[in-house]
Structure formats: structure tokens, C-alpha cells
Amino acid sequence: FPVTIRGVVLRVEYHVPIALKSVIEQRIGAVSYLFPAWVNTLTIRWAPSEEDIATAHPQYEYRAMTVTLHPPFLEDKEWHSSLIHEIGHGIVRPYVQIVDKMVEKFAADGIKEFLLDVLAAKEEEICEDLAIFIGKIQKDADV
What we know:
It is a single chain. Helices cover 56% and strands 18% of the residues. The radius of gyration is 16 Å and the shape is globular. It has four helices and five strands, in the order E-E-H-E-E-E-H-H-H. Strands 1-2-3-5-4 form a five-stranded mixed sheet, covered by helices on one side. By secondary structure, the protein is of the alpha/beta class.
């Protein structure tokens, strides 16, 4: 059943292990105030791969975001920063989508792939900068 946290409907998909649901809800709740105002629905998925800690899939046009968690998320001491990084994708993705569409429509075929790769790399860098920035603000607030 969905839970509402600070106005965001949180859906934890059925294949997420039951023992993890309360941990996930607690951790999402700890950073829920950082989700962009446009996120009305947050879906949590589980992927048993070890390749990532978490990945985000913002869908601005549907006012929804999906975050896929991986086993390292549960062991990672930096889970907070990793989750904030993924929230950063929700903050910047609407703008990235606009640039992405412009590249697809107007860039020459020989350069499209390069530009899209650069755009994806810059999105990752901006999300990491946001995570670092928010971490610093939170650390200062604790002082």
C-alpha cells in the first residue's frame, strides 16, 4: 500500500523484500524534503545487482520519479549522499530533457551521440555537486 510522506505518494514495489520496506521508508523519509516540488509519486524498485547503489528515473511529464535501490544501498555508510545524488537527477532532469530534445532535433547526426554523452556526464557531475552542497549545508546546520 502506498504511504504519503510530505505530500509525496511513496510506492514500494511488491518485489522489494518485506524486511527492507521499513528501512527504505525511513531512509526516504529522512531526505523527502529534498525532492523537487513536481514529484507527486515516488516509486521504489529493488534490483539485486551490485553495480550501483541507487539509480533514478525522473518522469517530469508524469510528475513521478522511480528510484531503483541495489543491495549496496543497505550497507553503504554514505547512503544519504547517494540518495541525495539521485534526488539531484529529479532536480535537473527537466532541464536536461529540454537540451536532449534540442540535440536530437537540431544537431547533425555525426555529433549527436557525442553531445548526448557530454550532456549525460554533465548531469552526473551536477548531481554530485548538489549532493556535496546539500551535505555541507546539513553539516553546518548540525553545528
